[in-house]
Specification:
It is a single chain. This protein has 302 residues and is mostly helical. Helix 1 packs across helix 5, helix 5 packs antiparallel against helix 10 and helix 7 runs parallel beside helix 9. The N and C termini lie far apart (56 Å).
């Protein structure tokens, strides 16, 4: 039987907000680096683009910031359930729109401000309910196997789709969606590892058994999912505006992570029915606000 683990949601939410801000700055810098590299001579081909990015200072700084954002995100997951902190990532879109307006020396439009308000209200409602009803539990072999099986299924489906459609042009938004999906697995796998370490410390269980070997498998999964997320995000920047990339990531990542947190990690196992209704309503409001904000941002910079 699983045992509850202590949670500090306010600290987790605070770190998640900082992570979202760092993430938005990193994405803007990487988008700038991708755009600059594409315009340079000799940037054709995968090797040429990769070398160009590695020599581009804004892109490298953006990569460092994205790494810092991941560290902060993992820190937030150490203090609060996944379904509490992951939706806070939607605020990265708000930061991105605000920073884009500052860099472009323009004021956000009324439509953008209204959409930002909708996003904030939706996310705040979701996180508040999640903080009240969510719980963290010790992690066993069953949960670890479930997460790894789902990741393997996603990897297989991804490979089949890309191979089957290799003769057709790939919609740029697909890379945004894939980047968000694998980013969600980085967070979910990271949370399982954190919970497993907390469980091991609580139970003083450090033997080389099946559960601990599965934990190592989750660490390997973080590396695979993280590498794919980075690769797809770079492809996404090449064919989409920064606001669209961040919008897609902030919708897909929290959605997938919250579903995994509820279904596999059992973070809402003790939640009443009204909480699930509130999750759906607040999540719908936040997602609607993201799409409206993305559309308003594109219209404002057209």
């Amino acid at each position: 039987m699983t045992a509850p683990l202590e949670s500090q949601p306010l600290l987790g939410i605070g770190l998640a907000l900082v992570s979202a801000l760092v993430l938005s700055v990193g994405n803007l810098l990487q988008a700038r680096g991708v755009a600059e590299t594409a315009d340079r001579p000799g940037a054709s081909g995968l090797g040429g683009r990769a070398l160009g990015l590695l020599r581009d200072r804004p892109w490298l700084l953006g990569a460092l910031l994205l790494g810092a954002a991941i560290v902060l995100q993992m820190g937030s997951l150490a203090f609060a359930p996944l379904i509490v902190v992951q939706p806070v990532g939607v605020s990265a879109l708000v930061f991105t729109v605000a920073l884009t307006a500052v860099v472009g020396r323009r004021r956000p439009s009324r439509a953008e401000l209204r959409a930002i308000a909708v996003c904030v209200v939706g996310v705040a409602a979701f996180v508040t309910v999640a903080a009240l009803v969510s719980t963290q539990h010790t992690i066993g072999a069953g949960e670890l196997i479930a997460v790894l099986v789902v990741l393997a299924f996603v990897l297989l489906t991804n490979a089949v789709l890309l191979v089957a459609g290799r003769s057709r042009p790939v919609p740029p938004v697909l890379f945004v969606l894939l980047g968000g999906v694998y980013s969600a697995f980085v967070a979910t796998l990271g949370k399982t590892v954190i919970l497993r370490v907390q469980t091991a410390l609580q139970l003083h269980s450090f033997a080389v058994d099946a559960t601990n070997l599965l934990t190592i498998g989750c660490i390997v999964g973080i590396g695979v999912a993280g590498a794919l997320s980075i690769a797809f995000v770079q492809r996404a920047h090449a064919g989409n505006r920064p606001e669209v990339v961040v919008a897609g990531l902030t919708v897909i990542d929290p959605t997938v992570a919250v579903v995994l947190g509820i279904t596999i990690l059992g973070e809402a196992s003790g939640a009443p029915l009204w909480a699930f209704a509130a999750f759906i309503a607040a999540g719908g409001v936040a997602v609607a606000g993201v799409f409206v904000l993305s559309r308003a941002a594109r219209a404002g910079t057209a």
